[in-house]
Structure formats: structure tokens, C-alpha cells
Amino acid sequence: MKITICTISLIVALTAASLSFKSKDNKANNDRIASENAFLQVYKVFMSPRCMNCHPAGDVPLNGNDNHLHPQGVKRGEDGKGVYALKCANCHQSQNTPGLNMPPGVPDWHLPPADMKMVFQGKSAHELALQIKDPKQNGGKSSHDLIEHMKTDLVKWAWKPGDGRTTPPLTYTEFYNQFKLWIDKGAVAPE
To answer: Which residues neighbour 94 within 8 Å (Cβ) at sequence distance 6 or greater?
Structure first.
């Protein structure tokens, strides 16, 4: 009889451990899926002209809803704020200039600096997710810093871009919530 009770106790313990492991495995899988799906939503915003124009593949910012090269020979510069007499702040003031397609503005208007370009243009969702979460490519930002960056006036500007410009495909609140969910669930790079 003792062997039977021991055997039953062992079976119960192994079954409980197996169920606990499966439960943890299911949660990890659900978190991965939630994170991937959240980034795919965020990616739509990052690929919109409001984000892409300041995250070009080259050193010339993009312009307009069609992502054409910025006129006037503007270039990124080492600090991302332009070069010589063509500094971003010369035209891009602390607020949008009134009028159709006039220079947009927000305090500290700039591109990412030359040593941390944060290129969105031409990146797949997988590539962009890896780049954004990599402190070697994102200016040393932690997950918390990335979330805080999404609260800045420069990022929020995309939803108030001035006359003649489209806004991203999600509301700012939807974007922020999806970005935070992506981070909170593991910052998974979609395959």
C-alpha cells in the first residue's frame, strides 16, 4: 500500500509541475505574440512620413507626404541640427509656421545625430525593432528611456504637423500604448 501512495504522490507532483511549466510557457508565448503584434502597429506609424522624414537612410532629411529630399541642400550635420547657415532652427521654429506646407516646428527640431542615425527608411519591422531596442544604436537608451522619448514634444508633433500634412495611421494614444506594450511584453522583434 505504501508503494501505491508514494507512486500516486509522485504522479500528482509531476502532473502539477508539468501544468505549471505549461502555464509559464503559455504566458511567455502570449507575451511574445502580444509584443510582436504591438510592434507591427507601431511600425505603421514609424513608416509614416511624419516619422520617416526625420529618420532617412541618408544625411538629407525627407520632406512632404511623399518623402522627397528636403530642398535647399539641407544636411544632417554631426549633431543632427544641420550644417553652416542651414541649421534646422533657422526655419523650424518652436511651433508650426501658419499656412499650407509652411515649415513645421517644435522646440529643439532636429534629426538624430550622425553617430546615431536611427534610420527608419527601408527597414523591415524586424530590423527596425532590433535597432530601436539596441542601446548601441539608440543613443544608449534603456527600455524606460525609449518609453520616455515617445512622450517628447518632438515625437508628439507628428499628430499636429501643421496645414497640408497627414498624420500617422494611429492616434498618439494608440501609438504610445502599443509602443509601451511592445516594451512591457519583451520588445520582441517580429519575424
So the answer is: 105, 106, 107
